[in-house]
Amino acid sequence: MSVAKIIEISSESPKSFEDAIVQGITRASQTLHGIKSAWVAEQHVVVENGKVALYRVGLKITFVMD
Predict the structure, then answer these.
(1) Are strands 4-13 and 35-48 parallel, antiparallel or unpaired?
(2) Closest CA to 34 of 5, 13, 4, 64
């Protein structure tokens, strides 16, 4: 039997939503083991001087507990 846990993290990137997702999962995998899935709970941008400055995502990450 296995037990999974879901955590929420936020991540940002000046490049794109996809890059923010990849960076968030990459960072989470440094301390969490057994990551099985992630889904984007929310997306938004930071606008400065009429241009998108940062792409932010809220991720829910599922991992199997040891």
Answers:
(1) unpaired
(2) 64
24: left (phi over 0), alpha (psi -120 to 50) or beta: alpha
Contact 60, 38 (CB under 8 A): yes
Cβ contact 63:4 at 8 Å: yes
Q: How confident is the model at residue 2 (pLDDT cuts 50, 70, 90)?
A: confident
The predicted model scores a pTM of 0.89
Q: How far is CA 2 from CA 45, 47, 63, 64, in A?
A: 37, 43, 10, 7
Distance (Å, rounded) from C-alpha 45 to C-alpha 66? 36
